[in-house]
Amino acid sequence: MTNTLIALVLGLFFGLSLQKAGLTKYHKIVNVFRFTDFAVLKFMMTTLIVSMAGLYTLKWMGLITFPGVPATYIAGNVIGGLIFGVGMAFTGY
Amino acid sequence: MDWLKEQFKKEEWSPYAAGAMLGVVGVLAVLLSDSLLGASGAFENLAGTIGQTIAPQLFDNLYFNYVMPPGLTWSGILLVGVFFGGMIGAWSSRTWKLRLNSDEQWKQVFGPSWPKRWLLAFLGAIVLEIGAGIAGGCTSGLAISGGMLLAPAAFIFIGAMFASGIATAWLVYGRRY
Fold first, then answer.
1. Residue contact A92–B106, C-beta within 8 A
2. Which 3 state secondary structure label does DSSP give A86?
3. ipTM of the complex
4. pLDDT confidence tier of residue B131, bands split at 50, 70 and 90
5. Cys-Cys link to B168, which of A52, A89, B43, B68 (CB 3.0-4.6 A)?
6. From A57, which residue of chain B is nearest by alpha-carbon distance?
7. pTM of the entire predicted model
8. What pLDDT was estimated at residue B59?
9. Quick one: DSSP state of residue A70?
10. What is the DSSP letter of B35?
11. Which of B36, B106, B160 is nearest residue A77 as measured by Cβ atoms?
12. Residue from the list A15, A66, A70 with its beta carbon closest to the beta carbon of B81
């Protein structure tokens, strides 16, 4: 129950951050691939840096253990990524 | 406090500010729920539920039994939040409105037809979901959630995603690129 509530609240902030960054708009997504608007990259890289710093600090303090790290299988990651990029550039999602 | 309200009403934030907020959300997800943020996986779990009800034999395979077990998962609930979170975002800046096709740039490239926008979005989303399924995640579930744990898979995925995204945009936009 608590877990459901946590997911719901975190989801609210997830959606809010995407919307406020303008990433719910087609042109924002596709323009990063045209090198005319780098909002997607700025957003993604900031998220990565903040969460990396937070998680590695918490891990170092012994407060968390990392959940299952996504598996690396190069062929799958590459082929999946290539197909994904086509969909992303087409839909703007 | 007033300053916070003022910020909340703004239609668009700096991507750095919004990104930092999502970063905190990502940390909290691990800290509070031992979970990673994701968007594409929950659809596969739900598809599994529907599939196992309609065509149990077709969906009785390794993928839907073990890799993506059916059901409403943690990230499924997260998505409900995402939907309403986006709505709150639009509502707070007074830009909430039902639209069939609102993007000016899309209209310039593909024309004003909204069914075309919906059809292309539907087909494109299928491609996107298949890609995410093969790679093991999407922009949130693999690129961001994997990246923050420094998983090599995330950075391979980001590279591939941008390579084909750039190529696709180049093909779609042609001379206007």
1. yes
2. helix
3. 0.93
4. very high
5. A89
6. B27
7. 0.93
8. 86
9. P
10. -
11. B160
12. A15
